[in-house]
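A student in our group prepared the protein record below, which I am reviewing. What it holds is a sequence and that sequence's fold in token form. My question to you is simply how this chain folds and whether the tokens agree. Do not assume that whoever made the record got everything right. I have pasted the whole thing underneath without changing anything:
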Amino acid sequence: MGIRKYRGQIVCDKRWPDGSRTTRVCGNRTLAKQLLDRINASIVDGTWQEFKEQLKLRDRGTVMLKDFSKTYIEEYAKVRNKKKSWLRKQTSLNALNSYMGTLDLTAISPAYLHNYVRKRKQGGLAEGTINKDLNTIRHLLSYAEECGVIESNPITQFKNLRENQKERPRFTDEQVDAVINAVRPDCRPLYIFIRETGCRREEALSLQHWQIQKESEMVVFTEDTKSRKYRYAPLTEAALEAVNVLQSIDGCPYVFYNLKSKDRWHDCRKAWEQAREKVGLPQMQVKDLRRHYAINLAEDGANMHDIQSVLGHASVTTTEKHYAHFSPEHSAKKILKVLEGGKAETKRKHCEHGSTSIKAVK
């Protein structure tokens, strides 16, 4: 059992805990060892039955994209991703399957994807939407490789389209305050808290009292974070006031709740939409509060890595790309300050040098 050579071929031979046996011909000893390691790992962590079924897919011969898409969604996406994420992957796979669903996984190549991209572009789809489709099929094939359904992922190096970044309007403090002040009183604390902490709407909606650390003036986000990692954010006086507006009630652990149902809000969108229409800023979205928070931090001199930590981004690149944009006026003023400071220093040194020269002459 294990890795052996049979009739000139490298074979991975392993017996499962139920007594059944998998014997698979591999291209070389390295691939055989990788497969054996995956089998042993699945036995250790108790997922060997699922992995055994996945290996059977390859033994059936042709595995079409539309068939493996179901396996990918059910056995990977729904298990590891949030509902919103796996539903988005399902949308991408629906589009991909309409073009190449009957293809065998081994037949998918960069040429097919180039043709797919061309047709989607002709259909008027945005680059960002197409890139989501490409990311999905790239990961699906990586998963198929991991499961042993295909030998290797043929589109690992396929490049995404370059997306045109559309800059959202920069809202002033006065505009943000105007919309929040127009929100009806029972919902206003929620949006004040989002403005003051830069959290996402769902993070604020699901916020519970135990997450508020009043002594250290911190809030810890652990529930419904996008990265599924906890993070801390400081609480300003305005944020603490927003937290204290609604009294805690028995049976409801949430900080912000619906006064009628005595439970958390589902999304609390209507109050925001009515407020922005009333003020005359229908284009302002709730996520603009988070962006406004990040830009103010950046322009006030906060370190980009600190901003990344507070916002909960996986990398500082995401912070720079999506949120922490400097306004052109602010950047120009900073450059001017540096230039004027440099000129002043040069002038001072020149004067000092001149004085020394005069003394030397004397």
